[in-house]
Write a structure and sequence with these properties.
- The protein has about 300 residues and is an alpha/beta fold.
- The protein has a single domain, classed as NADP-dependent oxidoreductase domain (TIM Barrel), CATH 3.20.20.
- The protein is built from ten helices and nine strands.
- The strands form two sheets. Strands 1-2-5-6-7-8-9 form a seven-stranded parallel beta sheet. A two-stranded antiparallel sheet has the order 3-4.
- Helix 4 links the parallel strand 5 and strand 6.
- Helix 4 packs across helix 5.
- The protein is globular, with a radius of gyration of 19 Å.
- The two termini are about 15 Å apart.
């Protein structure tokens, strides 16, 4: 489960009661990997909720969190991945989560002002201290991944990836396959677009952050809705929802270890978790790939 939505910063209609119920539903559905970050929430709301709700089941759960990004008082995002900051943020994250270690700690994104090797060295120190089990990097290109590796072994990377955003297949996937690095992707449902529940005439609320992305606008929006009509037909033919279909396709792609599915309601994560219980056949995968080809090149925008 990707735990950005429960932070409530860009998702609408989020509250602690529903977020707690969502985390509980995820665990009860068999999800045992929870991905968060120091900056998921202006004051660590995501990490705090995870610690409160899942702390009693800590031995059964993998915690992944990230450092290197924080918010100012007026909610401006700041990149700061200097070693002292990473170590301090990790300590705060551990306290919020109510644990003495996390299984996976990511550099959330490279800091243009700090050599990535220095950030890697800080995470290597955290591993040495027993506060982090394994290191990861998020939102990096291949050269940045290699530079990080020169100072600290990398166990996992976390890039954006979905049916319509497949840039990592060119370089990162082959490299990770060759070097035994896990790939845990975010945006498998493209911020809810590929869940298939946003209608053609959907009007985004003023504080819904999705409206700024090209995928949710104009010609791209219309092409995506045509594509989703094809996915709905395929999903209906096998008795699955579009979300299940998309998540199942994602985890069957070469090199993909896990899909991080965000949710702010229990029924959302229960639906996507069901994708763990079956597999698309080769014929069904081919149908989907043909639909993706017909969809054509995508105008998109990556963001952290």
């Amino acid at each position: 489960m990707g735990c950005w939505p429960i932070a409530g910063m860009t998702s609408v209609n989020v509250n602690d009661k529903d977020s707690r119920a969502t985390l509980t539903a995820a665990f009860e559905s068999g999800v045992n990997f929870f991905d968060t970050a120091y900056c998921y929430g202006a004051n660590g709301e995501s990490e705090r909720l995870i610690g409160e709700v899942l702390g009693a089941n800590r031995e059964e759960i993998v915690y992944a969190t990230k450092g290197g990004i924080h918010w100012t008082e007026d909610r401006q995002r700041v990149h700061d991945a200097c070693p002292d900051t990473l170590k301090a943020e990790c300590e705060t994250s551990l306290a919020r989560l109510g644990t003495n270690h996390v299984e996976l700690y990511y550099l959330h994104a490279p800091d243009p002002a700090v050599p990535i090797r220095e950030s890697a060295g800080a995470i290597a120190d955290l591993i040495q201290a027993g506060k982090v089990r394994f290191a990861g990097v998020s939102n990096v290109n291949l050269q940045q991944l290699r530079d990080f590796q020169s100072e600290c072994p990398v166990t996992a990377i976390q890039p954006p990836y979905n049916m319509l955003q497949r840039e990592i297949e060119a370089e990162l996937v082959p490299y990770c396959l060759a070097h035994d690095i896990s790939i845990l992707v975010y945006w498998p449902l493209m911020k809810g677009l590929l869940a298939g529940k946003l209608k053609r005439d959907h009007v985004f609320e003023a504080n819904d952050g999705r409206a700024k992305y090209p995928m949710f606008q104009g010609t791209e929006w219309r092409k995506n809705q045509d594509f989703l009509d094809e996915l709905r037909t395929i999903a209906a033919s096998i008795g699955k929802t579009v979300s299940e279909l998309v998540v199942n396709w994602t985890v069957q792609q070469s090199g993909i270890t896990a899909a991080l599915c965000g949710a702010k309601r229990g029924e959302q994560i229960t639906e996507t978790a069901a994708a763990m219980t079956w597999k698309l056949t080769p014929g069904q995968l081919q149908q989907i790939d043909e639909a993706i080809t017909r969809r054509g090149a995508v105008v998109t925008k990556s963001a952290v």
